[in-house]
Write a structure and sequence with these properties.
Layout (H helix, E strand, L loop, with lengths): L8 E7 L6 H8 L7 E8 L5 H5 L5 E5 L6 H11 L4 E5 L4 E2 L4 H6 L7 E9 L6 H10 L16 E5 H6 L10 H11 L3 E11 L6 H19 L5 H21 L6 H28 L6 H7 L4
Parallel strand pairs: 1-2, 1-4, 2-3, 6-8
Antiparallel strand pairs: 4-7, 5-8, 6-7
Helix pairs in contact: 8-10, 8-11, 9-10
């Protein structure tokens, strides 16, 4: 894609105490076949070696306080500063597994009707069995991606002019990528899943962390989709997930995970239900503190 017709590209990377993964992420980025980009890093109050580690790579740095980190607002501010016609969002814990992953991610933008693209994610080697199952279902090796994945920002790209038409929402703390992808679908705009842009990315959340993550996702689902908070639906979700988790654990011989399957899925669905109830109340009243979800998440990561 390195020719005169190639649109300019800005890579936007968010960091926060990322020293464990940052070198891998940046080394894989600067090993890509496509290198005609600027790198804009937004650091939200790192207290480890993250900022000093960045000095080994060409970049521009924005620093904000940890308390000011609100995903939609942070991404909008970074996108506003970006000079590229294509905005590429690359998480600081994402490792490209192919030297052409970035180039492949950008190829769909040769079609002027394409406003976005997102990569295939495969879990880290240490990922729990249930995480591996979820990723396999969400990001298959061939297109299309799972229907519930409208966009996924660990590695994704958007046309800046499309983002200018619809910046990331700030009505809830999480799922800014889901909301943007949903908006694109509702308006007949094309977002492409690119399995050949393959990266490694996953998290083994503790139960406390999982509660926080799923709470804000539930809140976001209620705000974005106006989805009803059905306790019965979540109970059925627990049962269905357990069957699949146990089956996958047996097949993958991850027997140690069998005992954790029920508490993990109970937290997974209960937190989502609680978040949806909170989001539903906020949507109905038209008011509410959008930072409540932020507090729910961050207090479980401290």
């Amino acid at each position: 894609m390195n020719d005169s017709t190639t649109p300019s590209v800005t890579i936007i990377m968010r960091t926060k105490d990322s020293e464990d993964t940052l070198t891998q992420a940046l080394t894989s980025l600067f090993s890509q076949t496509f290198q005609d980009f600027e790198l804009l890093v937004v650091d939200s109050g790192s207290t480890d070696r993250t900022v000093s580690m960045l000095s080994s790579f060409p970049h521009q740095l924005q620093r904000i306080a940890a308390a000011d980190y609100f995903p939609g607002k942070v991404l909008n501010a970074a996108a506003e500063e970006a000079t590229g016609e294509i905005l590429v969002f690359w998480n600081s814990d994402v490792v490209a597994l192919h030297s052409r992953s970035l180039e492949n991610l950008l190829i769909p933008f040769k079609d002027e009707n394409v406003v976005g693209a997102f990569a295939r994610q495969v879990p880290r080697p240490e990922a729990h069995a249930w995480v591996r199952r979820d990723y396999a279902a969400s990001f298959p090796p061939t297109s299309p991606a799972a229907p519930w994945i409208t966009l996924s920002l660990p590695l994704a790209a958007l046309r800046k002019n499309a983002w200018m038409e619809h910046p990331f929402y700030t009505d809830a703390w999480a799922s800014e990528d889901t909301e943007w992808g949903h908006w694109a679908r509702q308006n007949g705009l094309e977002i492409v899943y690119v399995p050949s842009a393959v990266v490694m990315h996953s998290h083994n959340y503790t139960l406390r962390q999982l509660y926080g993550r799923r709470f804000v996702e539930g809140e976001a689902d209620a705000v974005i989709f106006d989805t009803p908070a059905s306790a019965w639906q979540h109970i059925r979700g627990i049962a269905a997930s357990l069957v699949l988790d146990w089956r996958h654990a047996f097949h993958s011989r991850a027997f140690a995970e069998l005992a954790m399957a029920f508490p993990r899925r109970a937290v997974y669905h209960w937190a989502h239900f609680r978040g949806m109830r909170h989001g539903k109340k906020r949507r109905q009243s038209g008011v509410g503190d959008a930072r409540h979800g932020q507090r729910v998440v961050l207090e479980r990561y401290s």
